[in-house]
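S1.2 Input.
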Amino acid sequence: MREYLIRRLFLSLVTVFGVTVVIFLTMRVLPGDPIAIIFGEGTGVYVLSEDELKAARKSLGLDRPLYRQYSDWMADVFKGDLGYSFWLKRPVRETIQRRGPITAEIAVIAVMIS
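S1.3 Output.
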């Protein structure tokens, strides 16, 4: 029984790691420039000068290699820093704390109905 639990724990850790890698890479390979979306408000047109654009990329870590971006992202997740929403103008953790219980309630009701 103990071996089974250890094996399942190991497999769940591998699965979580795989899911985080897929999510991270998906967000990086999607078409469109994140800086243009953030500062161009979805128009795809920059409203920044070249120097401001470089500074924005550096501040968001988009100038680093992908493996470094991933390791920084995971370190922030483990620290509980989920980032800042550019659209809602507040930390993502606050949004999850506010909307999480409602989402959990809907999920429980959906499971009960199914």
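S1.4 Remarks. DSSP finds five helices and two strands in the chain.
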